[in-house]
Structures are given as structure tokens and as C-alpha cells.
């Protein structure tokens, strides 16, 4: 979706005004020159500008014939202009595009707790594929022609425009968003996007791609919570595959849920029963619960293999390993 499109019927405002002026001109002329009543003058004007070929309802004087000639020229020209606007509207599918944009706008307005993905290049496309697989709501922002064509063909929720624009970010529902991912290929643009997003929603979770290592610090200063260097990640993964290929395969299987045992995150929110309780008191060490691997505090402190006496706090992020039933059981214990 781009900035709000005008309704296609607005194109007909000028032809409608011109037609009204022509009708008024015709009625006034026949009333003044031929002294006809308003109904006869109106009827004569309509059959004249529509060129239906009916005979005059009353004989015309010489002045009336001259006036009718001018009315034909002006009226037919106005009618042709109106038909031209109508044909253009049908040719460029304005009504279909407008309806599609309105449906897209309604879908964007219904988004809650979603991610905003800035940039639909190779990285942005992969992010969308992952979100689709895990049914995570999202909206994409891009302004390049190639990306917009793909977004429309794939029927993705998107906003057309510059992701560093506050107006565009608001159209993507940044006030209701869970997080924003900057996947643009320019580090300078990424800085502006992060700054704009942080200004609009100070507590928003921000992730950014960094093309150059020296840009990582700049993006962190701009407000990014996480900065990812694709080249560093690729190098790290290739090294891990070379040294510990089996471990990488196992972790991938767990992460992508391709086995009965998976790794998931659980957030301790305000009002949950587990707030203020120890890990043991919350029941998270129960045989029916998932294995608690780590707890990350709101300030970033990480407790790996937490003990039974560790007390849970609001904002804690729990990393757990287990089957689907065990994970559901752990989530129920938190509530």
C-alpha cells in the first residue's frame, strides 16, 4: 500500500462540472433566445449534446440555429472528454487497484503484535519465508520497482515508500508492532530507519542488517537492539559446519521444529502467576515440563541452566527444550 489513493470516481469531477456548465449554458440560451420553458430547453439541450438526432421540439430562429451550433461543438467536446476519462479509468484498472489497496489497508490496520520488515531484497525475502512458515504476522516496506512487483504478485502485506519516513512507518502500524527488522542494503539508510523507528516507539525491538563491520557500532548507537552482519554470520556458520557439522545439524533440526523435540522461547509477562516465584516453586522442574535451558533477564543478564532457587521476574525470557506437550505444560505453569 502506498499513500492513500484517491477514489477513481474523483477523476470524473472535472467532466461532471463541465457537463453541468454545458447544460446550464444550453438551458439559458434556449430560454433567453427562443423563450422556451425550462423543460423544453433542458430536453433540447440533452438531445443536442448527446447527438441522438431527434428533431427540434420547436422551430429555431436564425439566432437559435447559431446558438445550437455552438452548443453542439461545446457539448460534444465535453462528452468526448468524459468518455476519454472513463476509457482511461477502465484501461489502467483503477477500480481494481483501488479496491485492492483498500483491502490491503484494512489488513494492515488489523495487524497487531507484528514485525515490520524494511527491504524486500534477498535477506528480506528469506525473512518473510521464515515468518510465513512460523505464521508470524508482518508487513513489508519497500520502494523499488522490482520488489514491489514481487510483493504484489506474491500477495504480501506491504507499504510502498521510504522506510525512514515516519508517515510510512505509521502506515505499517509501528504503534502496534512487536518489532522492526531493517534489511535494506545501505547502512546509511538503515541508520535513518532505526532512528525514525526508535523515535516513534522507544520500546520497539529493533534488528538491523549491517553491510560493513564499522556500521555495527553506528546502528547500535542509533538504537538497534541487535545488529547482524551477514558476512560474519556466514563465516561463523561455515566454520561451525567444518568443525562440528553434526552439532549444527542437530541445532537446526531443533530450531526449525523438524523433530519431536524443539527449542522455544517463553516470556514472563506482567500479572502471570510465576512472577516472584522461584523456578522450583513455579513447577518448571517438573518431569512434565520442558527442560529449562536458560533465562535471560530484561537487562540482558543470561542464566544458563538455572538452578531451582532462581526467582522469576517480569520480562524474563525462558529458553526451553521439550516436546510440544511439555512446552504447553511449561507455558501453563507460567500463567
Describe the structure.
This protein folds into 3 domains: 8-91, Helix Hairpins, CATH 1.10.287.70; 111-233, NAD(P)-binding Rossmann-like Domain (Rossmann fold), CATH 3.40.50; 245-334, 2-Layer Sandwich (Alpha-Beta Plaits), CATH 3.30.70.1450. It starts with 12 loop residues before the first helix and ends with a helix. With 335 residues, it is α/β, with parallel strands linked by helices. It has 12 helices and 10 strands. The mean pLDDT is 87.
For this entry, give a set of tags.
alpha/beta; 12 helices; 335 residues; Alpha-Beta Plaits; 3 domains; six-stranded parallel β-sheet; Helix Hairpins; 49% helix; four-stranded antiparallel β-sheet
Detail the topology: elements first, then pairings:
Blueprint: H1 13-33, H2 38-49, H3 62-91, H4 94-109, E1 115-118, H5 122-134, E2 138-142, H6 145-153, E3 158-160, H7 166-171, E4 179-182, H8 187-200, E5 205-209, H9 215-222, E6 226-228, H10 230-243, H11 245-255, E7 262-267, E8 291-296, E9 302-304, E10 317-322, H12 324-334
Parallel strand pairs: 1-2, 1-4, 2-3, 4-5, 5-6
Antiparallel strand pairs: 7-10, 8-9, 8-10
